[in-house]
Amino acid sequence: MVASESGSDRIEKQVRLSASRSRVWRALTDAHQFGQWFGVEFNGAIATGASLGGRITLKGYEHLRFEMLVEVVQAESRFSFRWHPFAIDPAVDYSTEPMTLVEFTLEDVADGILLTVVESGFDKIPASRRIKAFEMNSQGWATQMRNIEHYLAA
């Protein structure tokens, strides 16, 4: 896995996956499969323009809801959504805050697919929680890249 952070606004992580492009794509854009490796039970389908929610299934976070606004679903190439990063305090209303943009892209490489995830827009998050959100999501994306790798290897 390759990790990169550019300043405080952008997180980038990559993982080489030993799977076909269509298999990786389904793991990203089928709501059930995405939820399996990401840790969310969705109610709805991933589609351009969709507002999708679900229950987080990760231990210690089961009391939280996951919400995303799907921006782009470009067949077997690019999938992006917006969300409120590290929005884990149930007593806080994050709806007035700007969202970050999460973009997944697929690239053919020898023996598989290079999956890249970029999350950007942290500089617009309120200063009171920007650094913590960036740090936690940076760690989170490293974990999620390992999660999808293990999911696809199973």
Task: Summarize the SSE layout with pairings.
Elements: E1 2-6, E2 10-17, H1 21-29, H2 31-38, E3 40-43, E4 51-56, E5 65-74, E6 78-83, E7 100-109, E8 112-120, H3 127-153
Antiparallel strand pairs: 1-2, 2-8, 3-4, 4-5, 5-6, 6-7, 7-8
Helix pairs in contact: 1-2
Overall average residue pLDDT: 94
Strand segment count: 8
Q: Could you give me the name of the CATH homologous superfamily?
A: START domain
The CATH topology comes to Alpha-D-Glucose-1,6-Bisphosphate, Chain A, domain 4
Contiguous runs where pLDDT drops below 50 for at least 5 residues: 2-6
Major sheet characteristics: 8 strands, antiparallel
Distance between the termini: 18 Å
Encode the helix/strand succession as letters: EEHHEEEEEEH
Which structural class should the secondary elements be placed in? alpha+beta
